[in-house]
Amino acid sequence: MVPLIGPLIGMSVDALKTALAEAGVPAKAVAMRRSQLWNWVYGHGAREFSAMTNLAKDFRAAMADAFDLARPAVVTEQVSTDGTRKWLLRGADGHEFETVYIPEPGRGTLCVSSQVGCTLNCHFCHTGTQAWVRNLTPAEIVGQVMVARDALGDWPSTAPGRRITNVVMMGMGEPLYNFDAVKQALAIVADGDALAVSKRRVTVSTSGVVPMIKRAGEEIGAALAISLHAVRDDLRDVLVPLNKKYPIAALLDACRSYPGASNSRRITFEYVMLKGVNDSLAEARDLVRLLAKIPAKINLIPFNPWPGSPYECSDWAQIEKFAEVVNAAGYASPVRTPRGRDILAACGQLKSASVKLRASERS
Q1: Which of 39, 90, 115, 333 could form a disulfide with 43 if both were Cys (CB 3.0 to 4.6 A apart)?
Q2: pTM higher than 0.85 for the full model?
Q3: What percent of the chain has pLDDT over 90?
């Protein structure tokens, strides 16, 4: 019997090759065995080594002794009246996090978390009221996609008509504060021989961790989304406190030099519509001026209420007027249709029931 090495899900290609060698696979067979396991686990969603029927029984038994194929545990699954699904998931240590599937005609988007809780405390965001507990591992990030595919019957990965076509790192947490795990996980998500989501359909959202933005473009290569939400530093300091460290001018400079940004691959600027706070037409005109010379689209997000929130959603008529100003300047400015509000699955509403760690326990 070979010793237990640990979780296979989330391992990089190179790490899996090394682990297979440690598990006793002959050097000349490592590449082949890695490819076979990769296909079964990510291509077909195998949950047990016994399901890998074209592999020898003794090899399957050895792999079962060496590796764990467990996904995060599903604590609850909720389905909205509009078809949105939300899963509360639990890691091996008992901490919980959420992922959301949003179906639309011809596509389906999976909103994936990167952390348990969040460090940023954005004032309009329910997740921001939950203290940061820890970063998610590559296995837990990849595992969210696999759990959703299990529930949706979305295997094999390369089958036509898949329901999950887009993956967005817009769930709980700040992805660029968990850079290495997000990078490793998204490499598997976008691998044509693994979860096979086109890299052009993978998006990383950030509240503005300026020093990591260029690196994200170079090393992850996903589409970029910026949680902007204000056109003045004094207001953004309140809504997105990270702005005190990386103000708007520095953030937009980083966006102008984002690797791969172009008119065919625009940066998305997310702007939550808060009644009487950031929704004036003067602010719409300032927004247009701020984004000059950035290949951009502006995603207007009606505020999604949550218990205890100090904000209200802008009136629909005001949102439409705001959008008209942005559209007239030549920017695509879709208004995001609220989805999953009845199960607190909409943008800014995610929050798990995990126990918060004291600051002294986070090191």
Answers
A1: 39
A2: yes
A3: 79
